[in-house]
Amino acid sequence: MREFELLEHVYAANAELARHVRIGPGDDMAMVDLDGGRLLVAVDQIVAGKHVDLDTTPLELVGRKAITRSLSDIAAMAGKPVASLVAVTLPPDFGSKRATTLFDAMRKTAADYDCPLIGGDIAIHNENSHPLTCSVTVLATPSGEHVVTRDGAKVGDGVYVTGRLGGSLLPDGTGHHLTFEPRIKEAIELYRHLGTNLHAMIDISDGLGRDAAHIAEASGVSIQIDARLIPCRPGIEWRQAASEGEDYELCFTAPGELPTNMFELEVTRIGEVFDRKEPEKSSRGEAGGGSRGVVFLDGASELPGDELGWQHES
Q1: What's the whole-model pTM score?
Q2: What is the pLDDT of residues 130-157, one digit of tens each?
Q3: Are 198 and 145 in contact, with CB atoms under 8 Å apart?
Q4: Which of 205, 229, 247, 278 is 20 to 30 A (C-alpha) from 69?
Q5: Domain limits of the chain?
Q6: What is the mean pLDDT of residues 41-68?
Q7: Where are the alpha helices (DSSP H) in 200-277?
Q8: Contacts of 72 by beta carbon, 8 Å cutoff, 6+ apart
Q9: Which residues are paired to 151 by β-bridges?
């Protein structure tokens, strides 16, 4: 079973959704029409042993990550947080003290990002060997009439990332994937600065290669990335930065050149959007594009980028 094959099956039924569903499965958040407005909705989860190691990670950071993973989806669509709900399944030997610590961390984190925890559900596994699972649903509103999605990238756009990538999964229980700041404020500022020129955006959770490929596929374009321009954390080479995931930075496309430092956050142009069927050359004279979703150039060769990243499979 491969995650993306299952997702494609889910997406295939989108055309059958009710008319009040404006954005269905396939983006960072769904969107529905309500009387007098629009509501963005997303759900994400963490599973002990898959996303966090309970032996090395403080429960305060487990609770924090459970919330911030979903908040990063709000950032990906430049949304404004409204509220959150949490459903948790605990092993029977988890203990009330640990459970209280976990819930207090989730409640505090949600409040810190103006996304108050307003409800949810608790269940208990039958076996101690079954993992802690936290599922978090977040509600948000669009920042304006233009809703930022994955499918708006246009030929000629620059491809940008915020911050630095790679090295997020340090094994000491204090890695970036546990302490990252969801880029909600920065995404809203990008929206205010660019407006409808903020063509497409995604948060980098599965790796730059796969997440850029999500934009390329949804937009029907090809993306060329200059590997030498990827902003990597110290000691990280570009292949690791492009594939590791759990960075929770933003990848977006927009026309023209942007300042390299916006809103006290590093912004780097790393590539360009091309027609998916007709290879072109970038302003640097390098061939790219074609039918492949994402291509990385390292100065000597072209490397397919669609498979650089994480997917669940068994």
Answers
A1: 0.89
A2: 999 999 999 999 999 999 999 999 999 9
A3: no
A4: 229
A5: 3-141, 158-304
A6: 94
A7: 208-219, 238-243
A8: 180, 182, 183, 203, 205, 248
A9: none
Q: Which residues contact 219 (CB under 8 A, 6 or more apart)?
A: 150, 151, 152, 153, 154, 200, 273
pLDDT band at 9 (very low <50, low <70, confident <90, very high): confident
Scan for tokens 């039918």, then name that residue. Answer: 291
Q: Is the pLDDT of residue 280 over 80?
A: no
Q: Which two tokens stand for residue 213?
A: 């490929």
The Cα 266–Cα 186 span in angstroms is 11
Q: In whole numbers, what is the pLDDT of the chain averaged over residues?
A: 88
> Token digits for 138?
């977040």
CATH architecture of 158-304: Alpha-Beta Complex (3.90)
Cβ-in-10-Å burial (0-12, 13-18, 19+) of 22 comes to middle
Using CA atoms, how far residue 14 sits from 146, 152, 178, 213, in Å, is 21, 18, 33, 20
Tokens of 194: 């660019």
State which CATH number among 3.30.1330.10, 1.20.1250.20, 1.20.1530.20, 2.40.170.20 fits the domain covering 3-141: 3.30.1330.10
Predicted confidence at residue 284, as pLDDT, reads 43
